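Title: Comparing notes on inverse folding

I've been comparing how different people in this forum approach sequence design from structure. To keep things fair, I'm posting one structure and asking everyone to reply with a full sequence. Here's the target:
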């Protein structure tokens, strides 16, 4: 199978994944200063972490994440290669305020089929832009409660 390519998607550079790039904080509403209409403007010199080593789920798993689940098409960046509190999970981050309902339902189906709980989030909008994040768990009730009550670094520190 041919390896998937990002283009024309570039949503992970738009700030939906909070990160520091060359000292600049990118976050919802604040895209990377190196992003251009064609993609990364410093592609050969992009930071190793997080840029060069980040693989979204759509690139990693063409079997379960169909072509139309490409993040710029489906409205969610899916991450499948991380653990949460020691457990394998699927994580999904919207490319807007919320993940579109049909995308979320497809992710819930994958979560049930793979017996892998899902953590998805919603961004909270204030009058001057996005001001917070809400994480929601999907899976066993104890997992859902744990996600609701967990405190993550970005809840405490201004990254
Ligand atoms: S979200 Fe995924 S497909 Fe889109 S640019 Fe980032 S790594 Fe590539
Ligand atoms: S440096 Fe390039 S790859 Fe990294 S976030 Fe910025 S535009 Fe995207």
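Reply #1:
Here's my take.
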């Amino acid at each position: 199978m041919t390896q998937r390519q990002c283009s024309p998607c570039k949503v992970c550079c738009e700030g939906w994944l909070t990160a520091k790039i060359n000292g600049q904080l990118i976050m919802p509403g604040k895209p990377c200063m190196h992003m251009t209409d064609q993609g990364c403007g410093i592609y050969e010199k992009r930071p190793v972490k997080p840029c060069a080593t980040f693989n979204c789920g759509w690139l990693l798993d063409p079997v379960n994440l169909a072509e139309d689940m490409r993040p710029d098409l489906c409205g969610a960046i899916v991450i499948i290669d991380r653990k949460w509190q020691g457990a394998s999970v699927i994580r999904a981050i919207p490319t807007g305020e919320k993940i579109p309902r049909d995308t979320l339902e497809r992710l819930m189906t994958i979560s049930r089929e793979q017996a892998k709980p899902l953590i998805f989030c919603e961004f909270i909008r204030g009058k001057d832009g996005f001001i917070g994040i809400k994480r929601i768990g999907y899976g066993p009730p104890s997992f859902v409660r744990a996600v609701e009550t967990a405190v993550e670094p970005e809840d405490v520190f201004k990254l």
